[in-house]
Amino acid sequence: MSTFLGMPRGRVPGPPADPAVGQLTGDRPFPAAARSALGNSRLRANLAHATSTIRAKRAAVVEEVPDWEALREAGSAIKAATMARLPELLEQLEANVVARGGQVHWARDAAEANAVVTDLVRTTGADEVVKVKSMATAEIGLNEALEAAGITALETDLAELIVQLAGDKPSHILVPAIHRGRAEIREIFAQRMPGVDTGALTDEPAVLAAAARAHLREAFLRARVAVSGANFAVADTGTLTVVESEGNGRMCLTLPQTLITVMGVEKVVPTWSDLEVFLQLLPRSSTGERMNPYTSTWTGVTPGDGPSEFHLVLLDNGRSRALADEAGRSALHCIRCSACLNVCPVYERTGGHAYGSVYPGPIGAVLTPQLTGLTGGDDPNDSLPYASSLCGACYDVCPVKINIPELLVQLRAEHTEAHAEKHRLPTPEAAAMRAAAWVMRDADRFAAAGRAATVARRGIRKGKPVLPLPPPLNGWTASRDVPAPPAETFRDWWSRTRGARS
Predict the structure, then answer these.
(1) Which of 157, 264, 266, 438 is the most exposed place for a label (fewest CB within 10 A)?
(2) Residue 420 within any structural domain of the chain
(3) What does the alpha-carbon distance between residue 253 and residue 251 come to, in Å, rounded to a whole number?
């Protein structure tokens, strides 16, 4: 039977017409958006404080685990094996969910996923849903799609609630409101939260949490439909898993009559023993905890216990594109821990909004372009592979050992090739690189270039950097100094001290 990522053709006809649909693309390239963010001193202070705190917590709990590197290796191996047989595992997951009373829907892109969820909510007659924090639903823009259909989506995660009340966008995978300080949150609650006692409201975390709890309590009790994501799905039992720290997820997963889960197809794991590895890796890498306070698992429906109707929406939205890239598919190994964001010097200074996509930071810089594709043109996502210093800190902390720097270099090469195919005339950078390659291919030419640089040094004061260069070279010297050429080249030094041979 002809299949598309293991999905029968009759169910999902062909590849996505627009894999970038959803909240995966910003309106500006990263450099322009980052430049604006760098001018916001409050944003930078909030990010520096939050990321340093999370880094310290993670380092402390990881240090306690003597076999941490072995766990990382195991996680990486499980993910690689899962991607190698993903279609088979997805069909196994579907069969087991259906056998246990659930229903499975396949969505090739964000538009289809939103249509499925909207239709399911309408069928229940509800005009409101409560939501568990979910990157998949943020990716497809589900809240906006439900709002357009006259359905209110109420975020119940504290950070997501802050973002929603502020009319803002998430800027972090784990802590969506990381760019907001306590005083800002207090003002958001005072101005936007219905029924809040502004006189008693302070910026103390306990007071803010209590206000949110009171605001959400009635919503939990009246909710008939809940929407969630899933951290993992176990193929051999049809079990879904959500991990969280506040208890709001547990309320959404157990109280409503109907539960709808939207999950990226890469979140499947083969067995419960595989899940065991990730339940050790994820909390330490994400929240700096030994285990998640709430780990909820459910398998289909159970009469008299929890929701009486369960729907699983399996989302592609460009994942087939990433899976087809044998080298780049490791980006799909991501378990959304956000450890790479917390150590990234670029993210810490620009924040998540600069990336445009709901997936910011180092993992977003590789995952988003793979989901949407590189055009070789002016698409904002084409700039994301360059949003990195390639320092390697992200690779060091990734719990499943995704080599993000290597993927970034690969994507940069792909972007350059796509640009060359699209534009006949080379860019100034490409022309300069070709000239450098021509010089370096010949020993005599390379030696002559070194001597020429030494001659050019005569007009520069000893030890002083080269002044800003004229266009188009000023693009380089505008943000860095060019060191003064040495008084003697290495080749001349070698010839002088080791013999006449050059």
Answers:
(1) 438
(2) no
(3) 6
CA–CA separation, 374 vs 20, rounded Å? 11
Instruction: Determine, yes or no, domain membership for 204.
Output: yes
Quick: pLDDT tens for 305-314.
Answer: 999 999 999 9
Regarding whether 252 and 122 lie in a shared domain, the answer is: yes
Give yes or no for a cis peptide into 470 (omega within 30° of 0).
Answer: no
DSSP letter, residue 481: P
Same domain, 109 and 225: yes
From residue 179, give the alpha-carbon distance in Å to each of 2, 38, 176, 338.
47, 13, 8, 15
> Rounded to whole angstroms, what are the CA distances from 352 to 22, 93, 139, 362?
17, 33, 14, 10
What is the overall mean pLDDT for the chain?
Answer: 89
Confidence (pLDDT) at 6: 40
Task: Give the CATH number of the domain where residue 44 resides.
Answer: 3.40.50.10420
pLDDT digits over 273-320, tens only?
A: 999 999 999 999 999 999 999 999 999 999 999 999 999 999 999 999
Please tell me the pTM assigned to this model.
Answer: 0.85
CB-based contact 131:228 (threshold 8 Å): yes
The residue range of the domain holding 438 is 428-498
Same domain (yes/no): 19, 143: yes
DSSP 469: P
Q: Which of 293, 320, 347 is the last residue of a domain?
A: 320
Q: Is residue 216 part of a domain?
A: yes
Bridge partner list, 262: 313
128-131 and 258-264 beta bridge pairing: unpaired
Query: How many whole angstroms separate alpha carbon 323 and alpha carbon 320?
Result: 5
316 with 437, same domain: the answer is no
At 186 the three-state DSSP class reads: helix
Q: Is residue 282 part of a domain?
A: yes
Residue 251 near residue 132 (C-beta atoms within 8 A): no
* Last residue of one domain, picked from the residues 292, 320, 348: 320
What is the C-alpha to C-alpha distance for residues 140 and 315, in angstroms, rounded to an integer? Answer: 9
Amino acid 9 reads R
Q: How many domains are contained in the chain? A: 2
